[in-house]
Amino acid sequence: MNALLIHETEHCTMVQASGYRLPGYVIVELKAPCTHVSRMPAEVAADFYRCVTLAEALVQDLIEPERIYLMKFGEMVPQVHVHVVPRTAELQRAYLAEVEDEPPCNGARVVDWLWARHASLGHTDEAIASFVDRARAHVASAE
Predict the structure, then answer these.
(1) Backbone dihedral region for residue 67 (phi beyond 0: left; psi -120 to 50: alpha; all else: beta)
(2) How far is CA 131 from the centre of its chain?
(3) Does residue 41 fall inside a structural domain?
(4) 33, part of any domain
(5) From CA 6, how far away is CA 120, in angstroms rounded?
(6) DSSP-derived secondary structure for 58-114
(7) What is the pLDDT of residues 108-127, one digit of tens each?
(8) Is residue 112 one of the residues assigned to a domain?
């Protein structure tokens, strides 16, 4: 089993992002090739929506961020996937310490900053593994 896998359905996977060191940064991805949400069969779209909704709920319940960003890009990985990113008060403080901005902050700028600085934020492998374990338990209790 993938150590970062939180949940899997027939059509989707939900994983803690491996490329971004932030507990609760979750990626929901389709298993089958698809590059446009509008071209998903209804059954697949419904499953994808349930997984994105579940991911947002578990991030809210476990991380308790001030905001949750949901993003779909498809630039580097064209396969349909959504980034679920918790913007906590701690993350915003770190961002504002380096960037001339003020609340309400531009979420796209916060995420861009996060991508460049995630490794320096001090989140340990243990914190990430703990989030994954708690997220798995959260999903199991919701089923």
Answers:
(1) beta
(2) 12
(3) yes
(4) yes
(5) 24
(6) HHHHHH--SEEEEE---SS--S-EEEEEEE-HHHHHHHHHHSS--SSP-HHHHHHHH
(7) 999 999 999 999 999 999 99
(8) no
Q: Are 22 and 47 in contact (CB under 8 A)?
A: no
DSSP H or E run through 13: strand 12-16
Task: State which residues form the domain around 22.
Answer: 5-87+124-142
pLDDT digits (tens, 9 = 90+) for 11-66: 999 999 999 999 999 999 999 999 999 999 999 999 999 999 999 999 999 999 99
CATH of the domain at 11: 3.30.428.10
- How many C-beta neighbours within 10 Å does residue 51 have? 25
List the one residue out of 14, 42, 53 whose CA is nearest residue 30. Answer: 14
Amino acid in position 29: E
Q: How many domains does the chain have?
A: 1
Question: Is 0.70 surpassed by the pTM of this model?
Answer: yes
| Residue 13: inside a domain | yes
